[in-house]
Specification:
alpha+beta; Arc Repressor Mutant, subunit A; 210 residues; two-stranded antiparallel sheet
């Protein structure tokens, strides 16, 4: 297809006229306002021709489905803006919004609790990188730590920006042994109390039958 000269083509003049009024427009945006088909702009080479003549340049990128995939154009002959890479600072996904909404509603939660209350799978919350990205973006922070029954510490997440709560030191071997002995003692006391209650109940029943 022969590309018309920008100064002589009505379509080219409409494109430039639109970009003169607005910047950072995608091909579909330009198509709608300049009344030029999307295929004509892209496949027909109009955009390429304007760029070659340094009348327009890529001034930004629009994120679509979590990726910077749509170039945006403005008037000018400067260098194109390089497509941004997706990293923790600009990552976005529906699941991330659900995590923030869950923390807003329920307060500080572990990743297991976030999965339970948000409806996301445990694997998604734990391994997707959503939590790290949200922390980097200041949308959530580690508000505290919770020790499991076996000793390891798990972060507790809170909504909004804030300093990360320092992680407590790991238990020493002596502390772990002490906690284990305490659990055994409590379990034994519970068993003994259950036996006493059962014996008392049996005695009451016997007395009632006499």
């Amino acid at each position: 297809m022969k590309i018309p000269e920008p100064v002589s083509s009505p379509a080219m003049q409409r494109i430039l006229g639109v970009l003169e009024k607005k910047s950072n427009m995608s091909i579909s945006d330009i198509s709608a306002e300049a009344f030029v088909g999307v295929s004509t702009l892209a496949c027909g080479g109009y955009i390429a021709a304007l760029k070659k003549r340094q009348l327009i340049y890529v001034s930004g990128w629009r994120k679509v489905r979590c990726r910077f995939s749509t170039p945006l154009y403005s008037l000018g002959g400067v260098d194109d803006v390089i497509r941004p890479r997706i990293d923790e600072s600009n990552r976005d996904a529906p699941g991330m919004h659900r995590i923030v909404a869950t923390l807003d509603r329920y307060g500080q939660l572990s990743y297991r609790e976030i999965a339970r209350f948000s409806g996301l799978s445990l694997n998604t919350v734990k391994t997707s990188g959503f939590l790290d990205a949200l922390i980097t973006q200041g949308r959530i922070h580690i508000g505290g730590w919770r020790r499991s029954s076996h000793g390891p510490m798990s972060p507790i997440y809170a909504s909004g920006p804030g300093p990360a709560a320092p992680k407590p030191e790991s238990l020493t071997r002596a502390q772990k042994d002490s906690r284990h002995r305490l659990r055994l003692k409590i379990a034994a006391q519970g068993t003994g109390l259950s036996s006493q209650i059962a014996s008392l109940s049996s005695s009451i029943k016997s007395a009632l039958l006499e």
